[in-house]
Amino acid sequence: MGEQSNNFYARLERLEQKHEAMSRGYTARVRSDGLIVVSPRRLQSRISGRSVVLFVAAFLLFKGFLMAALGFGSYDFRVDQLRAGSGLEKAGAFVMQRDPVSQFIAEKIGPVLR
Q1: CA dist 69 to 35, 61, 87, Å?
Q2: Residue of higher predicted confidence among 69 and 24
Q3: b vs e for 47-63, b when ≥16 Cβ sit within 10 Å of the residue's Cβ?
Q4: Which residues contact 107 (CB under 8 A, 6 or more apart)?
Q5: pLDDT tens digits along 16-48
Q6: Of 91, 75, 72, which is closest to residue 83 (Cα–Cα)?
Q7: pLDDT value for 114
Q8: Is the dihedral of CA 93, 103, 70, 59 positive or negative?
């Protein structure tokens, strides 16, 4: 008797999950045998992978431009000043610290700016 009760509650839980998923939207389609199958609509992210890659590339270009415009010594001095500040400034210093990609971009942009 306990096993039947467990099966019943497991089926009930699956039905509740399906009902919750269907409440966010659903799609219906007809299979080749004529059966109509209703399934919950999949959630899609509003942020695409391409957008993330473009944002990171633009940020690295910005850092490279700053390094080339200020010079490496001045840039490092300003990042060190940020490191001495509050928690938010320390997080900014971590993000703005020199990395190989930004340094390479700065070395390529530097002669063009001067």
Answers
A1: 66, 12, 27
A2: 69
A3: eeeeeeeeeeeeeeeeb
A4: 68
A5: 988 888 888 888 899 999 999 888 887 777 888
A6: 91
A7: 72
A8: negative
Cα torsion angle, 92, 96, 98, 100, sign: positive
pLDDT above 70 (res 1): no
Return the domain boundaries, the chain.
Answer: 2-40, 49-113
- Per-residue pLDDT tens over the stretch 82-105: 999 899 999 999 999 999 999 999
Q: According to the 3-state scheme, what is the secondary structure of the chain?
A: CHHHHHHHHHHHHHHHHHHHHHHCCEEEEECCCCCEEEEECCCCCCCCHHHHHHHHHHHHHHHHHHHHHHCHHHHHHHHHHHHCCCHHHHHHHHHHCCCHHHHHHHHHHHHHHC
Quick one: what percent of the chain has pLDDT higher than 90?
63
Provide the 10 A C-beta neighbour count for residue 113. Answer: 9
Determine if the pTM surpasses 0.85: no
